[in-house]
Amino acid sequence: MYFSQKNKILHMYAYDPFMHAAFPQPMVKQQRFCTLVPAAGRRASPHPATAPCRFRLMVASARPRGQTPTRACRTPPSRVYIIAWHLVSWRATPQQSPTAQFVDTLVQGAPAMASEDSAAPVVVDECRGVLFVYSDGSVVRRAGPGFATPVQDDGTVEWKDAEFDAAHGLGLRLYRPRERKNQLLPVFFYYHGGGFCIGSRTWPNCQNYCLRLAAELGAVVVAPDYRLGPEHRLPAAIDDAATALLWLASQAVGGDPWLTEAADFTRVFVSGDSAGGTIVHHLSVRFGSAAGRAELGAASVKGYVQLMPFFGGTERTRSEAECPDDAFLNRPLNDRYWRLSLPLGATVDHSVSNPFGPDSPALEAVEFAPTLVVVGGRDILHDRAVDYAARLSAMGKPVEVKDFEGQQHGFFTIDPWSDASAVLMRALKRFIDTDGRFD
């Protein structure tokens, strides 16, 4: 966005690179409130297309002059807003422009703030145009992702939502193939990614991936939500993930018929991507003993799948040090996720983020079920995941690495129908069909 003043009129040009156009919105100016301040040390750019910036715009009264108003300029009197813009994706469609969605969200839902005579909160952290953390500690979230992805549901898979933790208001989404031939199907958990800060089972990219999992694996897919940072810092997400798995175990006897008539509780596989992959590691440790397996009762975990697990450490790996700034997951975003999700004051050597950190539990005694670790050759997390698998293998644990050369972080949820995603589906199918045995 950029702004100009002329004859006491504040012109807002919301440049939207997804629509390749700028739309001027003249707004009547009140001198006392209409100020434009670059936020957080970011310098204003003369051309937003070449150098997108973040601004703080305080407007007390704004009404269109000489044209039909849009939502973006229907600003109620005596209200101050923080307007932040971040280029989140070039895959968005013009009809669902992130610029329009984001400004709509702020203008319609932002709380009233102080006048210019007091310090107005500013955005200090932002994650993918979804999560905004302000200088006063308040948090604003968008319900959906910052990119437009249509759900591709051909009707071959049916699904429903269920609540697994009423105390925290957490739900999960269940999927099953419509054609089951009276057979019980393996259960395949999928914990979504998002750096422990964003993401949901309801997001279209998650839905598309789970629809393909259910159809091609011939499995009942369980996709739980979990609490997110910074409002709920780790290990909250780990605890919620364990609660979801225990909920499944509780369904084995006298549970929801929609689930029990389709699910084989003796063949459970637990997977997750990125932050979800980190969750999978912690679940494999918690339930990797006789006492842990007893907690699950009639449910039996046959294998774990870590898809590009989100591990960290204070010492940079080569793939972290050499990660380009334009990567889907780059160093600044990687570090921001940890800063917003780990306990306050913790470093990335914390036991949640670093399985081999100074305070992490020893893994030699853990009875790991067969574990498949999927990595991408262009992923910032590549080297850390490969090292994780190598260390477990050296301990004699049943682990296998599937390396997708040239693939970026989260390629299978970005495009579940790509050739690389098809290869992944075949690898997962083999893993399930052999109950986690490796060829």
Shape: globular
Q: For the record, what CATH class of the largest domain applies?
A: Alpha Beta
Sketch the major β-sheet: 8 strands, mixed
Report the portion of residues in β strands: 15-25%
The overall pLDDT average reads 79
| Strand-pairing-aware structural class | alpha/beta
From the 3D coordinates, which CATH architecture of the largest domain would you assign? Answer: 3-Layer(aba) Sandwich
How many strand elements? 16
Q: Count of DSSP helices?
A: 11
Query: Can you write the helix and strand succession as a string?
Result: EEEEEHEEEEEEHEHHEHHEHHEHEHH
Low-pLDDT stretches are 1-117
Query: Which homologous superfamily in CATH is the superfamily of the largest domain?
Result: Alpha/Beta hydrolase fold, catalytic domain
Order of neighbouring strands in the sheet with most strands: 9-10-12-11-13-14-15-16
Termini separation comes to: 55 Å
CATH topology of the largest domain: the name is Rossmann fold
